[in-house]
Amino acid sequence: MSGKFISLEGGEGAGKSTHSRRLASWLHEQEIAVVATREPGGTAGADAIRALLLDDDVPLSAMAEAHLFAAARADHVESLIRPALEKGQWIICDRFVDSSIVYQGIAGGLGASVVRGINETALNGCWPDLTLLLRTGAQIGAERALARDGDENDRFSIRDLSFHEAVAGGFELVAAAEPERFAIIDAEQPVDAVTEAICNAVRERLL
């Protein structure tokens, strides 16, 4: 695969969607062909699973969530991500496998190794070249998510602060375990400063 694969990770309200768009715009300015996508979703099959996963009226265990995320990810990788990379395009993905490892594995109690195992066949070796962890405090992230979503909350954003604190700690653990893949970005800075830090990280690591 000749393209580059960048994922953006972090808790609720960290600014992943905003900075995925800003990063895609910056890469276009560098005359790099970019495909911007998200998880869960990105393909018709994965979007169908997304609707189920985010519906807080449908009870799901952490194990069921992990398998559904992996199923959506398998279609996403096979149908969109891998073909784009093979064409030399860059992928920017708003969340990827590390969210499953953290949300279901660490915060959800399944164990990081269990969730990694569930995702091995889904990924088939397709890991990001660079993962940008947008670091923000759980309380700040929750407040941002509430301001963003209003009454349109999903099954993850409505969970209590202790869950989101576990998520924040989980991302720190996975980032510390793979420093060669992760770049940690202070997402509590002004938006333009976050964008600059992201672009600098991409320039240093991949350009």
Automatic annotation (TrEMBL):
Binding locations of ATP: 10-17
InterPro entries: P-loop_NTPase (IPR027417), Thymidylate_kin-like_dom (IPR039430), Thymidylate_kin_CS (IPR018095), Thymidylate_kinase (IPR018094)
Reactions that this protein is recorded to catalyse: dTMP + ATP = dTDP + ADP
Record-listed E.C. numbers: 2.7.4.9
Domain Thymidylate kinase-like: 8-198
PROSITE patterns in UniProt: THYMIDYLATE_KINASE
GO cellular component: cytosol
GO biological process, one term: dTTP biosynthetic process
Pfam families hit by this protein: Thymidylate_kin
SUPFAM superfamilies in the record: P-loop containing nucleoside triphosphate hydrolases (SSF52540)
Region (Disordered): 1-20
An annotated Gene Ontology molecular function: ATP binding
UniProt keyword annotation of ATP-binding present: yes
Keyword entries, A-Z: ATP-binding, Kinase, Nucleotide biosynthesis, Nucleotide-binding, Transferase
Domain of life: Bacteria
Keyword presence, tRNA processing: no
HAMAP family: Thymidylate_kinase (MF_00165)
Cited function: Phosphorylation of dTMP to form dTDP in both de novo and salvage pathways of dTTP synthesis.
Family: Belongs to the thymidylate kinase family.
Protein name as annotated: Thymidylate kinase
Organism expressing this protein natively: Parasphingopyxis marina
Taxonomic lineage of the native organism: Bacteria, Pseudomonadati, Pseudomonadota, Alphaproteobacteria, Sphingomonadales
